């Protein structure tokens, strides 16, 4: 299973916090996945099309339990993608218009846009609506790769409302348009974990946090290793330059003509070509500070520059 499927499975089993949470979840599902089928005389039916088994299961459950609506479920399999698709049909019935009004899908004047404020006044109901929104149009990449979370929506006002719901809980969402859809998305691992925890997918949130920790440790180790390799390369390059200068100076003056301090440094550098200046200072007798060793290096480089 994909991580998205795992999250949706977990979200579909979250127990409501208050008596209105399930209504908020169902409202989001109908808004995102549903289509109204209108006929003469103001008659209407509802169709919901989803490729998520837990979403289909939850929709049927809520339609039955909250509004006692009759539903017909058809499982279709795509020849092209070889994945099942679930069509939930809610045929025309006396209780359907009232249910749609209560869910904030329609009003006395027609189809409503955005999220009705009364459905999401409580924090728990706002979280339930976001739970339904993800179940209806959500995608989340595996946390082992790049962090990416999105909810695809057909209406810009609904995208704006969902982003605002997230911001109420300090989850910074952004919106972009992709072809005919409006995408509410998150790119931060911390923001994605916060959404999952808010919506009730606590096991998925823990999985996200675990991967975040692993990535953080791996990145820190890589940073330190790269820094160490860079330092070693610098030390190697510096040592090579010092050996080159030593050859020039010794070739011109000979060892015996040089001051004892320079002779000592030359012997230590030749014997320990990979040592840092600090390490050479510790090998000297008596030990020298790094600045004292560097002073001797500069003297040899100056002599070599005068010869060249």
From TrEMBL:
Coiled coil: none annotated. Residues 221-304 form the Sporulation regulator WhiA C-terminal domain. Residues 127-218 form the WhiA LAGLIDADG-like domain. The keyword Repeat does not apply. Signal peptide: none annotated. Keywords: Cell cycle, Cell division, DNA-binding. It comes from the Bacteria. Belongs to the WhiA family. Involved in cell division and chromosome segregation. This is Probable cell division protein WhiA. It comes from Cryptobacterium curtum (strain ATCC 700683 / DSM 15641 / CCUG 43107 / 12-3). The gene is whiA.
């Amino acid at each position: 299973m994909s991580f998205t499927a795992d999250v949706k499975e977990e979200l579909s089993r979250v127990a409501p916090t208050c008596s209105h949470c399930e209504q908020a979840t169902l409202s989001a599902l109908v808004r995102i996945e549903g289509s109204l089928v209108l006929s003469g005389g103001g008659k209407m039916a509802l169709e919901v099309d989803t490729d998520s088994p837990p979403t289909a299961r939850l929709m049927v459950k809520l339609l039955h339990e909250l509004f006692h609506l009759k539903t017909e479920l058809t499982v279709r399999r795509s020849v092209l993608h070889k994945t099942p698709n679930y069509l939930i049909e809610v045929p025309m019935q006396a209780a359907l218009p009232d249910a749609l009004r209560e869910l904030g899908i329609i009003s006395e004047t027609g189809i409503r846009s955005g999220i009705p404020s009364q459905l999401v006044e409580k924090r728990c109901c706002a979280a339930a609506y976001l739970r339904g929104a993800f179940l209806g149009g959500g995608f989340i990449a595996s946390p082992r790769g790049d962090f990416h979370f999105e909810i695809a929506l057909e209406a810009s006002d609904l995208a704006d409302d969902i982003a605002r719901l997230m911001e109420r809980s300090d989850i910074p969402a952004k919106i972009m348009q992709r072809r005919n859809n409006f995408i509410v998305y998150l790119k931060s691992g911390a923001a994605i974990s916060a959404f999952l925890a808010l919506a009730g997918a606590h096991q998925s949130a823990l999985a996200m946090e675990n991967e975040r920790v692993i990535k953080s440790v791996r990145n820190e180790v890589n940073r330190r290793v790269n820094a160490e390799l860079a330092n070693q390369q610098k030390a190697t390059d510096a040592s090579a330059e010092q050996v080159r200068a030593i050859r020039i100076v010794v070739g011109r003056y000979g060892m015996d003509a040089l001051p004892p301090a320079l002779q000592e440094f030359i012997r230590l550098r030749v014997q320990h070509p990979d040592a840092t200046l600090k390490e050479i200072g510790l090998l000297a007798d008596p030990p020298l500070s790094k600045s004292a060793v560097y002073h001797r290096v500069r003297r040899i480089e100056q002599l070599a520059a005068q010869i060249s």
